[in-house]
Design brief:
about 170 residues, mainly alpha, two-stranded parallel ribbon, 9 helices, globular
Length: about 170
């Protein structure tokens, strides 16, 4: 059985946040002998990506207002990201204290050398995986800085005009 979800480590944007300690305890109660695999991504590029996704989805706040570190506690009902979710050392310690086997992999290692990553992953987890497809083929194209600025300006009008017939057609086409 493989369970995977970004919310296992906590994410606040539009999702009212999840408590990763509670999640780890629940996973331990349900699957006490589970082997845990954590995939982590560089926090800065992840936050930039989440911001772009938020803008694409209607967010119009400035990047500076998107992320804050105010000794936050869960749950967060703001449309922003909080620092607690990105403290990976605490996350790794949490899972290592609860489970016998915890493996940590980095997204950037996969991005830099997918063949080596798959080989290392296969060896550490004792599975046989093959890399298929073209890793250089872009599936999700990122928004550029100019596109983000443009969409952020347009998104300010979404609450006003988005509910009308014309507004819905305009915003749905973006």
């Amino acid at each position: 059985i493989i369970l995977s979800n970004e919310l296992f480590v906590g994410q606040s944007l539009n999702l009212k946040s999840t408590n990763r300690t509670r999640t780890a305890r629940r996973l331990k109660a349900l699957f006490p002998e589970a082997e845990i695999v954590l995939f982590l991504r560089n926090q800065l590029s992840l936050i930039q990506s989440l911001y772009a996704i938020g803008v694409y989805d209607g967010l119009y706040i400035q990047p500076e207002a998107f992320f804050h570190d105010e000794n936050s506690s869960y749950p967060s009902f703001e449309r922003n990201e909080i620092a607690e979710s990105y403290k990976y050392l605490e996350l790794v310690k949490l899972y290592e204290s609860s489970f016998k086997k915890v493996e940590v992999f980095l997204f950037e290692d996969f991005k830099d050398d997918a063949k080596y990553f798959i080989s290392d992953f296969s060896e550490r987890l004792n599975v046989d995986l093959k890399l298929e497809g073209d890793k250089n083929q872009k599936v999700n194209r990122s928004l550029g800085e100019r596109q983000i600025k443009h969409l952020r300006r347009i998104n300010k009008f979404k609450p006003i005009f988005g509910g009308s017939g014309l507004g819905s057609r305009i915003f749905d086409s973006l």
